TrEMBL record:
This is Universal stress protein, putative. Pfam families: Usp (PF00582). Residues 1-133 form the UspA domain. Belongs to the universal stress protein A family. It comes from the Bacteria. InterPro entries: Rossmann-like_a/b/a_fold, Universal_stress_UspA, UspA.
């Protein structure tokens, strides 16, 4: 059904909470899992608001270990740019069958909809998107 699942993560609690559901889906569908983290480019984010390269590397390694503990071999990838666009472009590049991501609830308000990465991904993705609240 879903041969390749892309799981974009950041340091939010929403990403951590979604991981267990992602593991269930990957096991149920016998899918390949690719974990992606996008470092926002410096021109689009305020200073000190994004984690540095080392923090992102550690985040990805920790996620890979967590999925390994669930018996899932995951690939990890790091990109730099505007998160929603990078996620969708990468999903297209790898022919992802599904994007599964956490949601902070930012996009539930009119003001937050423009800031919500998950909302943008839903509108731009080349494949189905599952958002875990």
């Amino acid at each position: 059904m879903f041969k390749t699942i892309l799981f974009p993560i950041d340091q939010s609690r929403a990403s951590q909470d979604a991981a267990e559901k992602v593991a269930e889906i990957v096991k149920f569908c016998d899918s390949k899992l690719i974990i992606l983290s996008v470092q926002s480019d410096a021109e689009n984010t305020p200073e000190n608001s994004t984690p540095d390269n080392q923090a992102i590397d550690q985040l990805l390694q920790n996620a890979k270990i967590a999925f390994s503990d669930w018996g899932i071999a995951a690939e990890i990838t790091k990109l730099e740019g505007r998160p929603a666009f990078c996620i969708c472009d990468y999903a297209d590049e790898i022919n992802a069958d599904l994007i599964v991501m956490g949601c902070r609830g930012v996009g539930l308000t009119e003001e937050g909809a423009a800031e919500s990465v998950s909302n943008r991904v839903i509108n731009l993705a080349p494949c189905p998107v599952m958002v875990i609240p």
